[in-house]
Amino acid sequence: MKRTGLIVLGIMLAAANISGCASVAKEVVKQVLQDQEGEDEAKEEDKKSREDSEKEEKDVKLPAQDSDKSGADGALGSEGSKPESQTQDFDSFIKNELEPRLGTAKNSQFSYGFERRNYAGTNDFFAAPITALLDSGIVSTYRRDLNKDGRDELLVIYIEGSKLSGDGKNHFLMGVYGDSGNGITEWGRLGFDECFSGHNGEEYLFGLKDVGNRQLIYTGGSSHVWSWADGSNPQIHLYQFENNQIKEIYQVSTVGSDNSWMPQWRSELQGFGFELLDNSWGETQLAGESGFEVLAYGECYTKDQGNGQTNSQQQYWIDNGLVVGGIYGPDTQMVMQMNRTMQPYAGGSSSVSSGGEGNVYSGQAAASGQAAFPGQAASGQAAVLGNGDYILPNSSTIYLTRADLAGLSQEQLRLARNEIYARHGRKFKTKEIQDYFNSKSWYTGTIESNAFKDEYLNSYEKENIKLIQSLEK
Questions:
Q1: pTM of the entire structure?
Q2: Which residue from 115, 316, 378, 425 could staple onto 406, CB 3.0 to 4.6 Å apart?
Q3: What is the pLDDT of residue 44?
Q4: 410-422 and 431-438 helices, crossing angle to 10°
Q5: What average pLDDT does this structure show over 401-421?
Q6: Distance CA 23, CA 6 (A)
Q7: Cα–Cα distance, 154 to 178 (Å, whole number)
Q8: Segment (H or E) for 224
Q9: 3-state DSSP call for residue 114?
Q10: For residue 408, with 0-12 CB atoms within 10 Å meaning exposed, 13-18 middle and 19 or more buried, which class applies?
């Protein structure tokens, strides 16, 4: 009871005694005590309510906890159960140091053409891709406990674009940062030093493989040539975090036009804890791998913009060839689709779409021993033969044209349109369509047709659906 209440009570008691009404005094005391107790309870409830409200507001402001390891949460990463002070330190470091210095990636989708180059000392020429003019910037950041000591490291994936890199080349990189007690410092930098220039197709992937008491950093990439020759130069590197350093523990690379390297590389990687149960695995395709997380992916491939009529294949590419590509972070359909396949292997092929058109052309060149020439066949027909068991492997990552769909039958158009929905796990009411997608290793139907929402589709998919519908009769 507060002092003011006692004072009032004393006055009332005095008045009651003066008047000689002791019984009345008792009732007055009782009523005052009840009123005062009720007031105190109300105040206590109000105080508790305010404290609860303040706690809720604070809870709302905390970074969201992400229990799905494969679903990285963009620029903030996943916090797990790490100390709040470390989270705030990383947040401040990203905002105040990294973003001003590295920028944020702007052009995740890009394209560039070909230019004429002469062989030294001759009049013969070939079509050479022009270097992509990319901006510099951070693609994504992650917090991951690489050595499982209870403290996160900060992984920053970023582009040093040709516009500002200093050497006129694009660099696709990952920096690893941490705090050993003297502030946040960079503990290692790794990645690819020359990207999206000089080749018809390129693929790059950053990932993490969970093995025992550590997480291995995986980088895989390759560049391909198929418009005037045939060849590729795949490479794979493994790193582990140890004693506040990033150490390379495995690296392989080769140059050639076949896959003779795969059995040996596969055996060697299995020695580090990889499974690679899918026979179609590649340096950037590890579908079905358990405990694997794709962090970022970049690709480009050649797209034919002409009608295939020319007297010179090299001139044809200069006039009509276009290299299109993209850099994909954790919130993109490309990376989310890749991570959906990273689960305990259940049998069958689970390859994902990745530069499909380019891979088709490369395979044609290898088979014929000649320069791949997509204009010789309808683009749609080439797509039907594409990788990953898709009709249109890239319908979720590029804007298709009528040329891409040329040669497809009405039934193929219908399936290609529904393939876009099927990638997101939509079920179908029509039995024949449902049976068709049930036969595909990549398909997992999880969303009833009446529960599917258009917001699940990205801008490429929405426009491509409209285009396909315009060709269906």
A1: 0.57
A2: 378
A3: 52
A4: 70
A5: 89
A6: 19
A7: 6
A8: strand 214-225
A9: strand
A10: buried
Looking at this protein, which amino acid is placed at residue 212? Answer: G
- 232-272 pLDDT tens trace: 889 999 999 988 899 999 999 998 777 788 899 999 999 99
Classify residue 78 by burial, with Cβ atoms within 10 Å: 0-12, 13-18, 19+. buried
| β strands within 265-308, DSSP E | 292-304
Distance CA 428, CA 421 (A): 9
Higher pLDDT, 398 or 36: 398
For tokens 């492997």, what's the residue? 393
Question: In what helix (H) or strand (E) does residue 55 lie, and over which residues does it extend?
Answer: helix 22-61
**pLDDT for position 163:** 86
Nearest one of 342, 337, 299 to 209, comparing CA atoms:
342
- Only one residue has tokens 């401040």, namely 92
pLDDT digits (tens, 9 = 90+) for 2-47: 444 444 434 343 444 434 434 444 454 445 445 554 545 444 545 5
Q: Quick one: tokens of 276? A: 């690679």
Contact (CB, 8 A) for 351 and 287: yes
At 390, give phi and psi (nearest 5°). Answer: -105, 155
- Phi, psi for residue 202 in degrees, rounded to 5: -145, 150
